Amino acid sequence: xxxxxxxxxxxxxxxxxxxxxxxxxxxxxxxxxxxxxxxxxxxxxxxxxxxxxxxxxxxxxxxxxxxxxxxxxxxxxxxxxxxxxxxxxxxxxxxxxx
Length: 98
Fold this sequence. Notes:
Largest sheet: 2 strands, antiparallel
Distance between the termini: 45 Å
Helix content: 25-40%
Radius of gyration: 15 Å
Strand content: 15-25%
Oligomer: single chain
């Protein structure tokens, strides 16, 4: 366990460095942002750098702040981008940039 400092405030973390109390972070995030455009998150299921759990934590925090989230976990994809991710991104942008 440890702590991390974000914007001058300290937060408790677990042994992997993840925040242990997301409710405090979610409340502060919701209060800090003034614009809430939709966000797309894509994560490789075989990512050897960042665990897939990070996508879910991020998704939950953004949703709690009132931000629409499209998310995808790509089976077989490591820490990178492939053609399918490019296609998902193009579809996301086409839906939201009109």
